[in-house]
Amino acid sequence: MKSLFSLYYKNLFLTTRLFIGLGGAAVLYLLSFFFTWLGQIPAIFFFTLIVLLIIDLWMLYGTSNGIFAKRHAPERLSNGDDNEIGIYIENFYNFKVSTGIIDEIPHQFQKRDVLFQTTLTSHQHKLLNYVLRPTKRGEYEFGYVRVYVQAPLGLVNRRFNFEQGQTLAVYPSFLQMRKYELMAISNRLNEYGIKKIRRLGNSMEFEQIKNYVAGDDFRTLNWKASARRGELMVNNYTDEKSQHVYCVIDKSRTMKMPFEGLSLLDYAINASLVLSSVALIKQDKAGLITASDQKGAVIPADRRPTQLNKIMEVLYKEKTRYMETNMELLYTTIRNTLKQRSLVVFFTNFESMSALQRQLPFLQRIAKFHLLVLVFFENTELKKISEQPACNVEGIYIKTIAEKFAYEKKLIVKELARHGIQSILSAPQNLTVNTINRYLELKARQKI
Question: Where are the domains of the chain?
């Protein structure tokens, strides 16, 4: 009996309307000492309020399961994207109720305002949706769904607790990956900023022999097939297939810098996942290597249906380390893993020319055997500072330093080009588009 009472007591909350009523009764009792004509009005008002309170309690607690609520969430969340979460709620009371719904979202979001106010008529149900944008990979724990119900009298609230402890894994941006997958399948990548590249020459990858139609290149005529069929036949060529595309991700301290909530490592991981997906759709083989001061994960290039899941599972667990990358170890790993000429997209970051000079000898060795594309990041915060007008001497100094660092990034691009290494200097938010652009360009120019 005691536990039942404590259960009701813990879930009972008094409203502002009840406190206003009690305050009004207290004022009436106080005034009755000075104005005798009030007589029994204060007592009548107070006891009427008590009766209404009892009726309100009976309405709320007369039905044991008056409200049902449930959270609808996907099996996993996509890092850096808007993920839609839904709350289903249904009213089993025989009267209209006002509800306040609190969803206990994971502590990583640091939000305490996920509160929804809605009304439900008898036996009505609703689906309330909201959006969460995680910025870190890992496990996110959801707590209770709590519903505060108010009857028409509105003197008290009854709380319903729906224990729905839920742990969702936040994976690299698979929503972004699916978007680019659809674009690649339908050959509409240019709609998302992926530029079209003028094809130089003909690919040597034979696809089929087909009938000649006006406009076909005469140089592709197949005279033997034409003689057999008695009509002109031409060879049809397609892009080279089964080329090896490796994403190499630097996990050193230079990749820990945050932009718009996501670290540079997360931007690199999201871009690597999308690039691997597009490469597999283009019938190339995708692989992955992670690097830091120690040997990281290595997934040899393949195009099996399970390859993308392997890459995603590895990327899900990767974290930045606080040491510099061991470039000698990375070079050895690449030489031992890559048995043929491949496209190596190396995601890293340089803030100064001296940082590049330390790694340049190893980058030159990698570029000697493979097509190396070095991807590093533009510091958008410094760019904003350099574009702002200076108001005083301190502002001039800060702007000059910002412009110096921005200019040094451009010098790094020129230094890499001087040694025959291709590079992409990209703002973090444009990384995926710029990386796919370069991959399609190299494929169209038959550089791989």
Answer: 2-61, 67-171, 174-198+241-444, 205-238
